[in-house]
Please model this.
Amino acid sequence: MQAYRKIAYSAATASFLLSYIIHNPTLSNPIYSDIVSFWYRGFDLLRVPYIEVGFEYPPIAGFLTYLAAFLGSNVLSYYTVFSLIILAFYLILIEVVVRICAERNIGFEHVLIFLCLSPSMILYSIYNFDLIFASLLVASIYLLERGRLSSSALTFSLAALVKLVNLIALPFILTRIRGLRQQIKYLAISLSLFGAVNAILWIMNPAFIDETYFYHVRWGLENAWFLILFPDQESWGVAKLFSIILLVYGLLKIYVLDKVESFSQVFMVLAVFLLSSYVFTPQMVLWLLPFLAIMGRIPIPYFALELSNAAIILLWFEVQNPLEPWSPPQLFALLRAITLFMILLEVYLDSRRVMVDRAAERAS
Model:
């Protein structure tokens, strides 16, 4: 176990170092990173996010960005501090997944393949807040399975203050908690911290909710597979309605499954969200990788998913309009959606088969 942990830490650190190099802002032609772009949006002047300047990510994301800018005196030192913050969460994620895999007798190679050698991990770990979000979400579920409800709920709330998306998984998590009283406790803890932080910022700046959360509501289609169905911006309002219908349908299909393993269930929830979302930026694939490792499966479509997800950013600035429906980045986004759907379908059918088998056992 200790030897495996050392190998995982070493491989993760090497992967992270490569990511640090390719996004380094001092290179003549670095690969794009949102983190670097944030510096030039007021953080170089130490403008306080949500108060002095709008920021379209939840409060912890803004706080960490401001912290990196405060500790850094220029774009390189800011980038380095931010990278170290992400590295800390990355190593926490590695530790949690290594422990879960050891408890489930899942081969150590899954940790290496998905969390250390994945092209998406190398390209997108120092890119946005997604690795931080994934670390907190996986830790929250891990704590829940160990019966530490309060710690799990608190960590779940912290994840929502980074990326918000995990809130769609909350109804599914509540079904895994026995007793109405405990469910209410978990709900109260997970929402109270999230609500309190947002309420304080809203009081300090009434425009906070609009600048932070409704910013994404107004965003257009980006890397969504159904961009080919709605190529004109005039139709994007209908496309967003289509997105909501897909999301609700997919979540209901998962909700009716009985006794699904927790990590498989959250994986399906996240996959449904990504496949139905009108914005599916490539770094969001990082949400899924720890769950694939924990489930102990290496689906064949995964390799095509990784290839297509990496190609999106590598080709993004090589074409005149990367949002054109039939441009190379969008064609790879379409391939990514197809392969992710194949993986989701595999997990769903396996979960459904387990449910049917258990029902048959009870009937006999």
User: Anything to note?
Assistant: The longest helix spans residues 328-363. The chain has a mean pLDDT of 94.
